[in-house]
Amino acid sequence: MKRLVILLLLGLSNIGFAADTPLSQTEVYSTNYDARANIPTSLTREKAIRQIPAISPGEYFVPPDVGDIPTSKFGDMVKLGRNIFIDTQHYAKRYVGNGLNCSNCHLQEGRKAYAAPLWAAYPMYPAFRNKTRDVVTFEARVQDCFRYSMNGIAPTLDSPEIKAITSYAQWLSTGAPFNKELPGRGFARLGKPRDPTPVNGEKLYKENCASCHGWDGKGQKFSHRDGYMFPPLWGSDSFNHGAGMSTVKSCAQFSKANMPLGKGWTLTDMEAWDICTYIWLQDRPWDPRFGWFFNIFAPPTGGN
């Protein structure tokens, strides 16, 4: 017991010494320096993506047709990127830890407005992300999709998978202006008349979502091949707690414009919030940014 008290006192004295010792401006302690923690305060928060109205309702940027993919080495990489995007389970399986494909969230092969279309995202990078508190490239953003949405491992920046998806996104953006927000970018923006209720969300889920995603939220698999016809919304084969879609807000914004499938914009704003609050409360893979203690005992992030 006496040894334990001595060790605690020594530890506290070391902590106090470290806190009281300022870093010299002429010296850099690599082990103490955190670049992300030292970015200017004004860069730590940015406004959410704005919703830019379409000039003519229902009209958005039109990416090139698949038949227009060039016959060249670049075209081959674009084709590989498209294959990875719509069948990630087959073409990038080594980096995927669940049962999803990229196109489960980026609908219509990454073309659909308000379903995070690639043609609206690619021209806006490099960009600052509140999530990482850093300026990231498009390639680094794709890495995060593998880590969180696919609950897997981030491919290296020079991997064929990252090069191919980036090539596909660049090709879809052919003719789009750089560094200009386009109508249809990201997800829809919602009002929030009141606090959402999971009880109402469960009822609405069973009425609007369960026929495709299942009463247990674990999706429906294809009968003739691997993969899901309707993706799991929770459970071990779904995205993890670190994914953007795991937050109530992103889920509600996506659902408002796209769900039920083929009947987008039929849910009220409040119905989308209620349904996604119910989904948020379900079990899913851990957030890889945190250890087991936080994942078990702390409430999941993204609830508001």
Task: List descriptors.
304 residues, mainly alpha, Cytochrome Bc1 Complex, Chain D, domain 2, 2 domains, two-stranded antiparallel sheet, two-stranded antiparallel ribbon, 12 helices, 4 strands
SSE topology:
Blueprint lengths: L1 H19 L52 H14 L1 H4 L15 H4 L7 H4 L5 E3 L4 E3 L1 H12 L10 H13 L25 H11 L1 H4 L6 E2 L6 E3 L17 H11 L10 H12 L11 H6 L7
Antiparallel strand pairs: 1-2, 3-4
Short description:
With 304 residues, the chain is mostly helical. Helices cover 38% and strands 4% of the residues. The protein has two domains: 127 residues, Cytochrome Bc1 Complex, Chain D, domain 2 (Orthogonal Bundle), CATH 1.10.760.10; 117 residues, Cytochrome c-like domain (Cytochrome Bc1 Complex, Chain D, domain 2, Orthogonal Bundle), CATH 1.10.760.
Overview of this protein structure:
The chain has 304 residues and is mainly alpha-helical. It has 2 domains: 60-186, Cytochrome c-like domain (Cytochrome Bc1 Complex, Chain D, domain 2), CATH 1.10.760.10; 187-303, Cytochrome c-like domain (Cytochrome Bc1 Complex, Chain D, domain 2, Orthogonal Bundle). 38% of the residues lie in helices and 4% in strands. The protein is built from 12 helices and 4 strands. The chain has helices at 2-20, 73-86, 88-91, 107-110, 118-121, 138-149, 160-172, 198-208, 210-213, 248-258, 269-280, 292-297, and strands at 127-129, 134-136, 220-221, 228-230. It has a two-stranded antiparallel sheet with strand order 1-2. A hairpin with a 4-residue loop joins β1 (127-129) and β2 (134-136). α2 packs across α7 (160-172), α6 crosses α7 and α10 crosses α11. It starts with a helix and ends in a 7-residue tail after the last helix. Mean pLDDT is 86; it is low at 4-21, 25-31 and 35-46.
